[in-house]
Amino acid sequence: MQENNRTVRGSHFLFLWFGAAVSIAEIMTGGLLAPLGFKQGLLAVLLGHLAGTTLLALGGYIGAREGIPALFSTRISFGVYGSYLFSALNILQLVGWTAVMIISAARSANDVTRLLWGWDQLQVWSLFIGALVALWIALGREGGWKKLNMAAVVLLLGVTVMLSQVVFHDTGALTKEAVGGISFGGALELSVVMPLSWLPLIADYTRFARNRQGAVWGSWAGYFVGSCWMYIIGLGAALVSGSADPSAMMLAAGLGFGALGIIVLATVTTTFMDAYSAGVSFANLVPAWNEKWMALVLTAIGTALALAVDMELYQDFLLAIGSVFAPLFAVLFSDYFWHGRRQVTAGLLVDWPALAVWGIGVWLYYQMLEVDFIAGATIPVMVITAILLKLVRQVGGQQKQAGI
If you ran DSSP here, which 8-state letter would residue 352 be given? Predict the structure, then answer.
């Protein structure tokens, strides 16, 4: 990474990640925690995001320090072909996220126009939002996620305050007790997995940072505050009204036509990052291909998928992301921070022991979901995976010393 490409200040990361967190998907996920009641739900949100956002910041640190994209950094632990595997998996999850974000926003926007004017055109909204995401990408790094993003986030901050007033003007939500339907561990996992889903992306942006501290702390604070706030709004709305539907909240706030702009803007600032990083991951597979053009192509694919996405599978989609990327980054973080492996090894095509540990971690993740551990699945799995990798590296080191 050339130094003249490092132009992004800490304040830009603060705005970038706050804007990424202000999304309909985060409000909807917060609503899934409502059966816990407000107090336990709030505790799950804060603890889960404290863990998940800290992991996110560690990924951002690697990008800021080494000046490399997120999936390229996996070559440190898994080799070139290993990074290809994870790039392909990341492209799948990001195209999936693009589709989920577009369809969730399109449904909310369509609800608003149907209630206000009787205009019911879900597919048209999906195509329109997908086109705006493509436009945001086409504006490029300087226009797309610096100048415009900072202006957009100022507006979204005001909207967030307004939604909070709508949801919590009646303090009855604060006294709601648990009714069952989700365990504390399950709620904690849904809070951890949202920031975790951004781990394969964050270094794509922090590699452009002027300094590491600004990138890490700006990203951490922006995402932690924004995402916790969205979860709490969704939690409170579901407790009060039985629904975490953002369109209903905005209409209740008297926003009317303005609700459309807010829904679209919140979606574009988030979905842009998914689509752009999908292009970056594709560039790891085929370096000769331009990442911006690939991002535009993958946006088109995500938009097409949005026309047929089943939102009932949303929670399973989140957990599938956790199963893949929790053990992946446990291996990378263990190598980078614990074992001091901070450079890509020349000529390393596949690190089979690391891939084997990752595979065990994926299997273990689903076992932990079955157990329904109070600490969720991500954190225990990452700790166990890191310890297992430590043992594997020690055995490998001993074998090399013995000449085996």
Answer: H
